[in-house]
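Researcher: Structure for this, please.
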Amino acid sequence: MAFPGGPMGGGGAGNMDPEMIQQQQMIKFMQNTMESCPGKTVMAGGMGFALGGVFGLFMSSMRYDTPLSSGMPGGVGTGNIPSIPLKEQLKIGFKDMGKASLSSAKNFGYIGALFAGTECVIEGFRAKNELSNGVAAGCITGAFLAKGGGPQAMAVGCAGFAAFSAAIDSYMRMESDDRAADPIM
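Model: Predicted structure, token format:
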């Protein structure tokens, strides 16, 4: 049986030219890398960094406590804004947006990498793909992020991240055929 894009006939790799063999090896290598725990961790961290950067940029553009407002220490103040040239105002605003965006990107990347790595390790040890893996990873991630606040903060972080992870995971694992069970529709 011949599949589209595959070799003709029932032959194995013997019928493939060296370029196709190399291409298949590269595809297999990339799949194995992306399915490994370090690969998942790096991908989640990178995607979290990118999403966090966009989110931080958007949120910083909506803030009221900008460096040009009088409420911030070192702020220019509301009365002096017209006296500052437009180019300088834009420079201050974009610099502030860049700082906020980078800070948010780092946080999202760190949280994404920590959660994905923890979940992958738990899944590897348990050899099961279940909802409880994500809940346990959420608990560990939340507790680790709150470690500076003491044991009570760690417990709250554990519970919060575990609940959020359970909610997202259970939604993602829902059967897509049953439209009545979808709470968003």
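Researcher: Any notable elements?
Model: The chain has a mean pLDDT of 84. The CA atoms of residues 44 and 126 lie 21 Å apart.
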